[in-house]
Design brief:
The protein has about 190 residues and is mainly α. It has 2 domains: about 1-115, no CATH class; about 135-185, no CATH class. It is built from 9 helices and no strands. The chain has helices at about 1-20, 30-50, 50-60, 70-85, 90-115, 125-130, 140-145, 160-170, 180-185. Helix 2 packs across helix 4. The protein starts with a helix and ends with a helix.
């Protein structure tokens, strides 16, 4: 998953990083790599820190990828702070890089993960990478407690990664509101 995220960061880093005069050319590659590192760790922190509702909205594609999105805000702060401290970039520059790249990378990442024609990239990778951060495993929690909350999205009698995939891709047999409904049901929200 990191490799795909890094590829997207390289793709969208041209304007935000390479053409940015405030970033020394010899640091371009490092800044792009740090952006993708910080994004992945930020998503993992959100998943393990209980920010599941916002992540669900993001991954389902139902929430806008703009500066009002709580996931975008949190990732922007993390990436900007990391770039500023690691490369001694002015706050305006690091904020500009984060604000420019994060929505583009996430939008492309989500679209690629949902596209069945996209080879070597799938929703399982995305959910697995995000949920495997420190402090717990999102999918393990859903698997362990999900059955008690009616979270079996595909009707196979168990709650597993396939239910998350069904919820994310909109292929659930019983439309329960996508991943937001899946995670909302787990935490008692409808």
């Amino acid at each position: 998953m990191f490799d795909q995220l890094l590829d997207l960061a390289k793709q969208y880093g041209t304007d935000a990083v390479v053409k940015n005069n405030a970033i020394p050319n010899e640091k371009n590659e490092e800044v792009i790599k740090e952006t993708s590192n910080s994004m992945l760790s930020g998503l993992q922190e959100m998943a393990t820190g209980g920010n599941l509702g916002d992540l669900a909205g993001l991954l389902s594609g139902k929430s806008k990828l703009d500066s009002n999105n709580p996931v975008i805000k949190q990732l922007t702060e993390k990436v900007s702070g990391s770039l500023g401290s690691k490369f001694n970039l002015p706050q305006e520059t690091s904020n500009g890089v984060a604000n420019n790249m994060i929505p583009q990378i996430l939008g492309s990442l989500i679209n690629k993960a949902k596209d069945p024609k996209e080879k070597g990239f799938n929703i399982e990778d995305l959910v697995g990478s995000i949920s495997s951060g420190k402090g717990g495993d999102l999918m393990e929690m859903v698997t362990k407690y999900g059955g008690a909350f009616g979270l079996d999205q595909n009707g196979d009698g168990k709650v597993d990664l396939q239910d998350a995939i069904s919820a994310l891709s909109g292929n659930a047999k019983s439309k329960k509101g996508g991943l937001g409904g899946l995670l909302g049901g787990l935490f008692g929200k409808k």
